[in-house]
């Protein structure tokens, strides 16, 4: 079998297999950013789209990850599918999705999730759960009739990959590693030692 030449198509095929075997959130990915002091920060987010332009997720721009990505537009992702014994690592520059793309995705979310995007001051301290519940009630009342618009502080990021590595578990820790590196408009691939 020959090595794949299109890492995005290869990723999509692995993601499709994960959707069939992973019990929860096959689109979950660890997102690494870097703060002002150079300290890395890591958390789980959900992939919402992937195409030749990159990997897309959505968040509150006022959150820790939002602030870090706006200040330092570089990130790394890691997908780990335990049931398949595979992982994919992605590194690249980050760009904001356009307003039309963000609006379309926001409109597709459940109404309560859209209200939550208004109610949560994500990553900031709160006095207690009741404070959040009051804010949810306030915004639910404000948008009781009609559509819930996308908040100005809520949108998406696209990680434009410069490197994608596919890892597959093999016996005796002799794993398979296939690395893709972007070179202008094409990809160079190489097999790495485990």
From TrEMBL:
HAMAP family the UniProt entry points to: PdxH (MF_01629)
Domain Pyridoxamine 5'-phosphate oxidase N-terminal: 16-139
Source species of the chain: Minwuia thermotolerans
Higher taxonomy: Bacteria, Pseudomonadati, Pseudomonadota, Alphaproteobacteria, Minwuiales
Record key words, sorted: Flavoprotein, FMN, Oxidoreductase, Pyridoxine biosynthesis
UniProt binding sites for substrate: 48, 105, 109, 113, 173-175
Alphabetized GO MF terms: FMN binding; pyridoxamine phosphate oxidase activity
UniProt record similarity statement: Belongs to the pyridoxamine 5'-phosphate oxidase family.
Complex and partners: Homodimer.
Cofactor comment: Binds 1 FMN per subunit.
Any coiled-coil regions, as ranges: none
Protein name: Pyridoxine/pyridoxamine 5'-phosphate oxidase
Job of this protein: Catalyzes the oxidation of either pyridoxine 5'-phosphate (PNP) or pyridoxamine 5'-phosphate (PMP) into pyridoxal 5'-phosphate (PLP).
Pyridoxine 5'-phosphate oxidase dimerisation C-terminal domain: residues covered: 154-194
InterPro entries reported for this sequence: Pyridox_Oxase, Pyridox_Oxase_CS, Pyridox_Oxase_N, Pyridoxamine_oxidase_dimer_C, Split_barrel_FMN-bd
Catalytic activity reported: pyridoxine 5'-phosphate + O2 = pyridoxal 5'-phosphate + H2O2; pyridoxamine 5'-phosphate + O2 + H2O = pyridoxal 5'-phosphate + H2O2 + NH4(+)
Enzyme Commission (EC) number: 1.4.3.5
């Amino acid at each position: 079998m020959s090595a794949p030449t299109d890492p995005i198509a290869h990723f999509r095929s692995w993601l499709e297999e994960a959707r069939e075997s992973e019990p929860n959130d096959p689109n979950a990915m660890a997102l690494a950013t870097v703060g002002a002091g150079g300290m890395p920060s890591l958390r789980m987010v959900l992939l919402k789209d992937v195409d030749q332009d990159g990997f897309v997720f959505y968040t509150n721009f006022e959150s820790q990850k939002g602030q870090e990505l706006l200040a330092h537009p570089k990130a790394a992702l890691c997908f780990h599918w335990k049931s398949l014994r595979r992982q994919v690592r992605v590194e690249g520059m980050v760009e904001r999705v356009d307003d039309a793309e963000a609006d379309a995705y926001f409109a597709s979310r459940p109404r309560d999730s859209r209200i939550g995007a208004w109610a949560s001051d994500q990553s900031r301290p709160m006095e207690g759960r009741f404070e959040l519940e009051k804010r949810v009630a306030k915004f639910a009342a404000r948008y009781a009739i009609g559509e819930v618009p996308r908040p100005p502080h809520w949108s998406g990021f696209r990680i434009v990959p410069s490197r994608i590595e596919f890892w597959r578990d093999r016996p005796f820790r002799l794993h398979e590693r296939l690395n893709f590196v972007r070179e202008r408009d094409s990809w160079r691939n190489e097999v790495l030692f485990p």
